[in-house]
């Protein structure tokens, strides 16, 4: 008996692992403890041998198990439905009876193993024994387990950070499976960034795509992730505010996604093999909309049958039942049995026969083409209904068409058809939620293309489509946009350095620089200069050019200053102080600086305060800013003494920026408190 | 724009383009006399030429009204000025300098008082860069060029825009600008130029030993600078001039489209023509407030 987690939040996408175990010998009944909206629609028919479980096909990945009328050896006995967990549920847990072994040789202490999202708890049955274990999931690094088919007992080995391991022996492999899945989920979740539902900013509607973009950005940029963790998760800033300034990043990410058009896979996905489990006799067909799309694209008869039969004549499950039955028959290559079954079941016959739509399409293609000009298609294309691809053996022109020939299908036909579809490209380009949508979209696109195809072969649409298909965007070079030409509105104004207004204002504007006051007139100054030149020409250079004592003094002073600054600042002028600090200090300082910038950006943007929301925000920001001061002090203290001076120099502008902000805050608070008497509307 | 200089003859061959300040207004009020200055500087040129046989020195005079090439050690026209008292090259340089000053004087007109007597540093810097570009394009083998500015005149804020453009183009073509400032005040332009292009800036304390300063600091070629330590200034003065009035400012408005700097709030940017939004409040105006603090 299994108890399932209760869901308390119906609005989020859920993952629920619902495992019911049946076998022929001992029918168990699984009870579902929680019913959410999806579950209420399920009907459980407990029966000993076969289960029918109808599930809404709204989840992206659903496994359908259903019984087949097969020989007795194959029987479906287990059903499961599997969704993806997106939200954590606080009460999700798994409890099993297991034995805890410290080593492989240890016989193990029997007890109960309980796993919740946060930790693993093992309580031995005998309260006096010492095997109690309480480990948090944070410390679990990985897991290993013994394989089902081997002769080993079902063991699960959880490794933790310090390379220790906890070995649990379960009663059977399905228990092991449950625990393994649970641990896998928790480990996967711990690697993600946790997302809080954004409820603070009232008007924000986030769709899944937007969330995905944000998560991706956070995963790619660890600096951003640190900032995000620091501010948003501690409620200093809300999600909306954090991302409001980073729209450009988000847009860039979004545009990255749409670049490439994915084609179909080359592997034949539509030829899916069911997974069989010899021990419990179950057959699993895993159908995703992708596979369904491929099946419909490759077998238009199936597509047509789907559109016509479902949901009028039969349910979708029945449809797929028959389809897979037909596939099974094909795979056994037993055309006699196929013919027999086709005779019984009309719908099954649809799947077993040759695809007449394909045949007619091929014939149409041939008719459309002028064989003298275009070797695109020839008689050999129309092979689906000709045995041996129309190649005659032994010169024998007769074709003995047995009744059963109709039901034969060769592997090469499948492969060729698949290849043709892949090369055609995707006709529909979006993600789908369920089969019906897939079928309809494909039908719609086929109709469109057939409308286009009816017209002249060289129609502009056709040519346009051809050119679109032959262009491979990834391989083209990036079109560098031409640089914008330099556009200066008034070049004279910009370039002309001697200006009338410069003359007017320069006289009184310069406070710092001293002006050269020259009392002599122009000819005089030039004359004196020329005199110096002629004097040096006649007298030659001064002997000596430099007095030895002066030179010695200068040299000493220079070498002193060079050695001092080298000690203090560094070797070359472009090298920064930061590079000489120990790496950890440098990273901390840079991180504090980016967080200061982030806080200040939001702080200054909130002024002037007009709403109470901004007021609360400013208060939060101010508290966060005050918390930075002790962090800076801590860094200063942790640095070795030779770097203390430089660190304090680096820290000074940070202090200045924070002081300016806090000063402004206090001034505005004061102003507000003095004005509050005048404001009648109770502005906070 | 030419790419980085290609491999040379040898690593330490250098081409030094010297921008000599010949602003007469500065020299008439300077503590160091022009003739002393010249003797230091000429000896320095000879020293550079002796460091390596293939070194080259080009001198451009920065006058008050004009700039001109005074001297090129690689040219053959130096032979004609024989003077027993000093080396040939120096005498040719002096001769050319004198001719330049005569021409410069003729170009001057009477300016109103109170004007900053700054030299045309911008013009000589541009000429130096053009010469260096020509050297780059002359072939595969050429010396490492660098620019040495011997300035004493104060900065003219009206030249800010053009000087910054020249500095950025020097940075782009990887030409370091060294500067030796012998005036009384600090020159923000020279400090920025050396900082941005990776050159050395120094303001000598003792002008009598100018030759020693020049030899110790500015004679090092670019290859040796990777292992010879040169004095670093403590900080750089990053003040700019506004584009509208050409005043030196350290707090102003910046256009977010073309990054032009203004001292007052404008409706429209005069450089790129973009219209600024309404200034609703301090924080919400379209052109941000930018604060330039000198680095400590």
What is the fold's blueprint, element by element?
The complex is a heterodimer of chains A (684) and B (296).
Chain A: E1 17-20, H1 37-40, E2 62-64, E3 79-82, E4 93-101, E5 109-116, E6 119-124, E7 133-136, E8 140-145, E9 155-160, E10 165-170, H2 173-191, H3 208-220, H4 222-231, H5 239-244, H6 247-257, E11 275-277, E12 282-287, H7 289-298, H8 300-309, H9 316-332, H10 335-344, H11 346-352, H12 356-368, H13 411-424, H14 435-454, H15 460-470, H16 491-495, H17 500-509, H18 522-539, H19 548-568, H20 583-606, H21 612-638, H22 644-675
Antiparallel strand pairs in A: 1-3, 2-12, 4-5, 4-10, 5-6, 6-7, 8-9, 9-10, 11-12
Helix pairs in contact in A: 3-4, 3-6, 7-8, 7-14, 9-11, 10-11, 20-21, 20-22, 21-22
Chain B: E1 14-21, H1 24-28, H2 34-51, E2 56-62, E3 67-72, H3 88-107, H4 121-136, E4 144-151, H5 160-172, E5 177-181, H6 188-197, E6 201-202, H7 210-218, E7 240-241, E8 248-249, E9 251-254, E10 261-262, E11 288-291
Parallel strand pairs in B: 1-2, 1-4, 4-5, 5-6
Antiparallel strand pairs in B: 2-3, 7-8, 9-10, 9-11
Family (chain A): Belongs to the TFB1 family.
Region (Disordered) (chain A): 441-462
Keywords (chain A): Nucleus, Repeat, Transcription, Transcription regulation
Textual characterization of the structure:
The complex is a heterodimer of chains A (684) and B (296). Chain A has a 7-stranded antiparallel β-sheet, covered by helices on one side. A 3-stranded antiparallel β-sheet of chain A has the order 2-12-11. Chain A has helices spanning 37-40, 173-191, 208-220, 222-231, 239-244, 247-257, 289-298, 300-309, 316-332, 335-344, 346-352, 356-368, 411-424, 435-454, 460-470, 491-495, 500-509, 522-539, 548-568, 583-606, 612-638, 644-675; strands at residues 17-20, 62-64, 79-82, 93-101, 109-116, 119-124, 133-136, 140-145, 155-160, 165-170, 275-277, 282-287. The longest helix of chain A has 32 residues, at 644-675. In chain A, helix 3 (208-220) crosses helix 6, helix 7 runs parallel beside helix 14 (435-454) and helix 20 (583-606) runs parallel beside helix 22 (644-675). The two termini of chain A are 58 Å apart. With 684 residues, chain A is α+β, with helices and mostly antiparallel strands. Chain A is extended and about 125 Å long. Mean pLDDT of chain A is 67; it is low at 1-91, 192-203 and 498-515. Chain B contains 7 helices and 11 strands. In chain B, helix 6 links the parallel strand 5 and strand 6. Chain B is globular. The interface between A and B is large, with 72 and 81 residues. Chain B: Keywords: DNA damage, DNA repair, Metal-binding, Nucleus, Transcription, Transcription regulation, Zinc, Zinc-finger. Chain B: It holds the Pfam family Tfb4. Chain B: This is General transcription and DNA repair factor IIH subunit TFB4.
């Amino acid at each position: 008996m299994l108890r399932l987690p209760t869901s308390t939040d119906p609005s989020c996408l859920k993952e629920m692992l619902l495992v019911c175990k049946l076998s022929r010998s001992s029918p168990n009944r699984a009870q579902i403890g929680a019913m959410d909206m999806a579950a209420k629609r399920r009907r459980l028919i407990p029966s000993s041998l076969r289960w029918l479980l109808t599930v809404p096909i709204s989840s992206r990945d659903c496994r359908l198990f259903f019984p087949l009328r097969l020989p007795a050896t194959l029987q479906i006995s287990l059903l499961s439905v599997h969704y993806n967990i997106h939200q954590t549920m606080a009460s999700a847990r798994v409890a099993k009876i297991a034995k805890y072994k410290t080593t492989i040789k240890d016989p193990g202490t029997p007890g109960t193993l309980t796993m919740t999202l946060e930790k693993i708890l093992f309580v031995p049955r005998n309260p006096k024994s010492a095997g109690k274990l309480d480990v948090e999931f944070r410390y679990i690094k990985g897991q290993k387990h013994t394989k089902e088919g081997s002769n080993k007992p079902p063991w699960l080995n959880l490794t933790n950070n310090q390379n220790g391991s906890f070995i649990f022996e379960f009663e059977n492999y399905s228990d092991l499976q449950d625990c393994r899945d649970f641990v896998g989920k928790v480990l996967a979740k711990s690697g993600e960034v946790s997302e809080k539902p954004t409820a603070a900013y009232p008007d924000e509607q986030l769709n899944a795509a937007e969330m995905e973009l944000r998560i991706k950005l956070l995963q790619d940029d660890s600096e951003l992730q640190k900032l995000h963790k620091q501010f948003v998760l501690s409620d200093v800033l809300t999600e909306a505010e954090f991302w409001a300034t980073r729209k450009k990043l988000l847009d860039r990410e979004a545009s990255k996604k749409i670049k490439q058009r994915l084609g179909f896979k080359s592997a034949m996905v539509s030829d899916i093999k069911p997974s069989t489990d010899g021990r419990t006799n179950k057959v699993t067909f895993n159908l995703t909309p992708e596979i369904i799309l491929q099946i419909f694209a490759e077998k238009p008869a199936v597509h047509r049958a789907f559109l016509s039969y479902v949901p009028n004549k039969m349910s979708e499950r029945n449809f797929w039942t028959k389809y897979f039955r037909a596939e099974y028959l094909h795979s056994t290559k037993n055309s006699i049995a196929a013919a027999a079954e086709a005779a019984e079941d009309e719908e099954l016959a649809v799947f077993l026969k040759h695809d007449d739509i394909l045949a007619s399409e091929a014939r149409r293609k041939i008719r459309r083409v002028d064989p003298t000009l275009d070797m695109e298609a020839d008689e050999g294309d129309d092979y689906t209904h000709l045995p041996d691809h129309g190649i005659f053996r032994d010169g024998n022109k007769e074709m003995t068409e047995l009744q059963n020939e109709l039901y034969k299908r060769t592997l090469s036909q499948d492969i060729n058809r698949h290849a043709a579809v892949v090369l055609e490209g995707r006709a529909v380009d979006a993600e789908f939620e369920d089969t019906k949508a897939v079928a309809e979209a494909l039908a719609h696109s086929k109709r469109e293309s057939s409308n286009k195809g009816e017209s002249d072969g060289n129609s502009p649409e056709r040519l346009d489509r051809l050119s679109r298909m032959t262009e491979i965007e990834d391989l083209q070079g990036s079109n560098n946009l031409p640089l914008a030409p330099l556009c200066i509105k008034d070049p004279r104004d910009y370039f002309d350095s001697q200006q009338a207004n410069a003359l007017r204002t320069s006289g009184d504007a310069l406070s710092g620089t001293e002006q050269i006051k020259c009392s002599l007139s122009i000819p005089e100054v030039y004359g004196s200069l020329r005199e110096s030149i002629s004097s040096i020409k006649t007298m030659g250079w001064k002997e000596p050019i430099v007095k030895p004592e002066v030179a010695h003094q200068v040299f000493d002073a220079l070498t002193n200053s060079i050695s001092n600054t080298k000690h203090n600042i560094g070797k070359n002028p472009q090298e920064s102080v930061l590079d000489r600090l120990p790496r950890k200090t440098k990273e901390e300082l840079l991180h504090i600086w980016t967080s200061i910038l982030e806080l200040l950006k939001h702080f200054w943007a909130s002024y002037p305060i007009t709403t109470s929301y901004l007021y609360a925000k400013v208060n939060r920001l101010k508290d966060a800013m005050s918390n930075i001061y002790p962090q800076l002090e801590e860094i200063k203290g942790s640095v070795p003494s030779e770097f203390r001076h430089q660190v304090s120099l680096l820290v000074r502008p940070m202090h200045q920026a924070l002081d300016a902000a806090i000063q402004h805050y206090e001034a505005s608070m004061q102003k507000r408190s003095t004005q509050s008497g005048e404001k009648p509307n109770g502005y906070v | 724009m030419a790419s980085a200089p290609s491999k040379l003859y040898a690593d330490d061959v250098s081409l030094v383009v010297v921008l000599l300040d010949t602003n007469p207004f500065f020299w008439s009020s300077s503590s160091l006399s022009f003739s002393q200055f010249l003797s230091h500087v000429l000896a320095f040129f000879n020293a550079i030429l002796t460091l390596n046989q293939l070194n080259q020195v080009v001198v451009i005079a920065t006058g008050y009204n004009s700039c001109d090439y005074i001297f090129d050690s690689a040219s053959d026209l130096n032979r004609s000025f024989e003077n027993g008292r000093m080396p040939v090259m120096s005498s040719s340089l002096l001769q050319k300098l004198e001719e330049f000053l005569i021409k410069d004087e003729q170009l001057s007109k009477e300016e109103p008082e109170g004007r900053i007597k700054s030299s045309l540093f911008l013009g000589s810097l541009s000429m130096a860069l053009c010469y260096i570009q020509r050297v780059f394009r002359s072939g595969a083998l050429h010396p490492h060029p660098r620019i040495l500015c011997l300035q004493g005149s104060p900065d003219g804020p009206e030249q800010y825009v053009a000087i910054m453009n020249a500095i950025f183009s020097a940075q782009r073509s990887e030409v370091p600008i060294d500067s030796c400032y012998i005036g009384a005040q600090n020159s923000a332009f020279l400090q920025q130029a050396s900082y941005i292009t990776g050159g050395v800036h120094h303001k000598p304390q003792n002008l009598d030993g100018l030759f020693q300063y020049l030899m110790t600091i500015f004679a090092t070629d670019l290859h040796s600078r990777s292992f010879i330590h040169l004095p670093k200034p403590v900080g750089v003065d990053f003040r700019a001039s506004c584009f509208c009035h050409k005043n030196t400012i350290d707090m102003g408005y910046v256009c977010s489209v073309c990054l032009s700097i203004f001292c007052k709030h404008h409706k429209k940017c005069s450089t790129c023509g973009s219209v600024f939004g309404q200034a609703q409040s301090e924080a919400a105006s379209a052109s941000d407030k930018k604060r330039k603090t000198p680095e400590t």
